[in-house]
Write a structure and sequence with these properties.
Elements lengths: L1 H19 L6 E6 L2 E6 L6 E5 L8 E8 L5 E3 L4 E5 L6 E4 L15 E3 L13 E7 L1 H4 L5 E11 L2 E14 L1
């Protein structure tokens, strides 16, 4: 009987882990431009990212930026792709740019909380971001990756922070 006392909690813990899907929470450490940066993987102040697994290929994916309760957030076209460390699953390193990519991709800030036509709409809660990283990173090898995006307060761009979402290339 004593064996079953330990078996039931162990089975329940495994079921909960399976239902959770193995998704990490909290922050992971990502090396971006040579600096270690904490990147939240779950909802951060009501702003988060998702990736539709059906859209992931070696050359791109559709990422969705979500917001809830935040009047406005800003984001640009720039993003980072990092690969999971082999020895530490909470450490990620940015995938190097391919030769010849200059990094000149700072485009105007897009303010979420407005319609694409620039009309205020605080109900605008999702933005689909079709991403093709082939020109920047080349096709990705099969493995586990992290899509990282910086979001800012449109009125104070110095308040930027990074958010991220994991995805797998098969």
């Amino acid at each position: 009987m004593k064996r079953f006392r330990f078996l039931v909690p162990a089975v329940l813990a495994l079921l909960l882990a399976a239902l959770w899907g193995g998704r990490e929470s909290g922050s992971v450490i990502v090396t971006l431009n040579g600096q270690k940066t904490p990147v939240p993987l779950t909802e951060d102040e009501h702003v988060w990212l998702t990736v539709d697994p059906a859209t992931v290929t070696a050359t791109g994916a559709i990422v969705t930026l979500h917001k809830e309760g935040t009047p406005e957030i800003g984001y640009g076209h720039r993003y980072h792709i990092a690969q999971k460390g082999r020895q530490n699953s909470r450490r990620w390193t940015e995938v190097p740019w391919i030769d010849g990519f200059s990094g000149d991709w700072f485009l105007p800030l897009i303010v979420m909380g407005f319609t694409p036509d620039g009309i205020p709409n605080l109900e605008h809660r999702e933005s689909n971001l079709p991403v093709n990283w082939e020109d920047i990173y080349g096709p990705l090898e099969p493995g586990e990756y992290l899509f990282v995006k910086e979001i800012v307060d449109p009125d104070d761009r110095s308040t930027g922070r990074y958010i991220g979402v994991e995805f797998t290339v098969n």
